[in-house]
Amino acid sequence: MTHAPVLKVENLQTRFKSVQRGKFVHAVDDVSIELYPGEIVGLVGESGCGKSTLGRTIVGLEKASSGRVLLDGVDLSGLSGAALRDSRRALQYVFQDPYSSLNDRQTVGEAIDEALVIAGTRSPEERDRRTKELLDQVGLASAVRDRHTRELSGGQRQRVAIARSLAVNPRVLICDEPVSALDLSIRAQVMNLFLRLQKDLGVACLFIAHDLALVRQAASRVYVMYLGKIVEHGPSQELYDHPGHPYSQMLLASAPEVDPRVEKLRKGPLMIGEVPSPTNPPSGCRFRTRCPLAVDDCAKAIPPSHGLSPGHSAACIFARDLHRGKRSALLQPEASVA
């Protein structure tokens, strides 16, 4: 890509004090990502790997311990006053649970109007026009405007949440599993709506999810996160077809099959053990304690990121072999694990 990224995260770290005295939870550890105008980028990994914390740190809901978040090349940590408010409007967050992200005491109109007021739209007439426009964009009739958010279904609530996030004309949306809390019957509807709006408005989006099929459908590029670190990233099709990290391969192989006959023949779960504690992560490669390919060298140092193809890299000493398919057999269910 020749143009500059609209959002750039450099060596970001987010730590929290642990219940153990003197210990810290390393939720996000030295993460760097880029997001270009108008694109959707996926962020995938197991629950507890730090995906949501990364998203919340980017928009300022969590405080970074170190590193930088740059919006159009401007470091957000150095902003204050009006400049900081402008940056926060440019970065919006769509939360996973529409039942907790909206105020039950507000009507739909009040929820959207509040966002417009904060954005600086002072004219009641202009706010009224914009509210109607936003409701129409997300496929909700103007009649819902006077209903309380608690009266809406989950899908309707998430549409209101999307409308509210778009009210301030953001440059970037951080979407934290925006359809995972919805019934299966309406996930596709909300997802299709989101993809249409993203394309029409040209807003860049970091799409956080554990549903790999959903990310493959939506994202042009994907970052894979494990225990606070990015272990692989690359173009979506390339990464899904030729993953270069054992964790990525295991995530893909563990995804449920659509065909129940194929799913029934699955030999067993490929993911070994539990995610280690982020308070005391393993030395070297953090995935080594669950990896069937792990050797002594994996414990000695954090593996460097190896380039595999244009825009595709993975942080594993076996990355090039895995990318070429030479070691994939070791990651199959029937393989013995020492």
Automatic annotation (TrEMBL):
UniProt cross-references to PROSITE patterns, sorted A to Z: ABC_TRANSPORTER_1, ABC_TRANSPORTER_2
Keywords, sorted A to Z: Amino-acid transport, ATP-binding, Nucleotide-binding, Transport
GO MF annotations, alphabetized: ATP binding; ATP hydrolysis activity
Pfam families: ABC_tran (PF00005), oligo_HPY (PF08352)
GO CC annotation terms, alphabetical: plasma membrane
GO BP terms: amino acid transport; peptide transport; transmembrane transport
Domain of life: Bacteria
Topology versus the membrane: Peripheral membrane protein
InterPro entries with a match to the protein in the record: AAA+_ATPase, ABC_transp_ATP-bind, ABC_transporter-like_ATP-bd, ABC_transporter-like_CS, Oligopep_ABC_C, P-loop_NTPase
Chief localisation class: membrane
Domain ABC transporter: 7-252
Cellular compartment(s): Cell inner membrane
NCBIfam families: oligo_HPY
Family affiliation: Belongs to the ABC transporter superfamily.
Function: Probably part of a binding-protein-dependent transport system y4tOPQRS for a peptide. Probably responsible for energy coupling to the transport system.
Name of the molecule in the record: ATP-binding cassette domain-containing protein
